[in-house]
Each structure stands twice: as structure tokens, then as C-alpha cells.
Amino acid sequence: MTDQAITRERATEPEDLTRLFVERANAGDAEGLAELYEPDAVLAFPPGSRTVGREAIRAVFERMLAQVPHFVPEPALPTVRNGDLAVTSTRPADNTGGRVQVVRRQPDGSWLRVIDRPEIRD
Predict the structure, then answer these.
(1) pLDDT band at 5 (very low <50, low <70, confident <90, very high)
(2) By CB distance 3.0 to 4.6 Å, which of 4, 32, 40, 78 could disulfide with 24?
């Protein structure tokens, strides 16, 4: 049996990352979630922690998906861009603060998360 690489949709705009995150999370695809991050990205999750690197991020998402089986898209706040960098954010449906990501355009034109802070409390 040979391994076949799974071809997943790439984010062509920074705002695509949030939609792709929700779609992959709802599909239970921890590997696909991790692919939304640069190889050395930083995820500030679980709260108060710092998870570094795509493999460590994938492991966090595996645990998270076991506890949270369904995600709902949240309203996006305006994206702020500066060249190949952008800041994306959403207002959580539970009104607990905000979610903020720094994303970077890749050489192929797609976008990946570099820094993700999914939990900001008011």
C-alpha cells in the first residue's frame, strides 16, 4: 500500500484561513488544521501555554477535537495587511474577547498562520 498525499484547499486570501479552520475542525482533521500553520508557528493554546511547531500544534488539535466536536463560524473583524503579513481576527460567539492571528503570504501565494492567539479574554 502506498501513501497518497491529501491535497487540501489552500488559503488564497488571509480571511480564508478562518473558514478552512472551521471546515477542517468539523471534519475532525487535526493534520489539516496543522497545515494551516507555518512549520515553526506559535499557538497560544491551551490558554496560558505556548505551543511551537506544526507537529506540536497538530497534537494540541487532536486533543481539542476530542473535546470540542463542532465549531461554528464566527464573524470576522477587518483584516489589516502590510505586504506579505496580515492580522486576522474574529469576535467569539460567546463574547469572551477575541481571537487574533498573524498570517504570512507564502512563496506560492497562499497564506499560513504564523502566530495564533485563539483566546483573548476581556
Answers:
(1) low
(2) 32
pTM: 0.90
Q: Which three cell numbers stand for residue 21?
A: 479552520
Cα–Cα distance, 118 to 122 (Å, whole number): 13
Q: DSSP assignment of the chain, as one string?
A: ----PPP-PPBSSTTHHHHHHHHHHHTT-HHHHHTTEEEEEEE--STT--EESHHHHHHHHHHHHHH-------PBPPPEEETTEEEEEE--TT-SSEEEEEEEE-TTS-EEEEEEEEEE--
Beta-bridge partners for 100: 89, 117
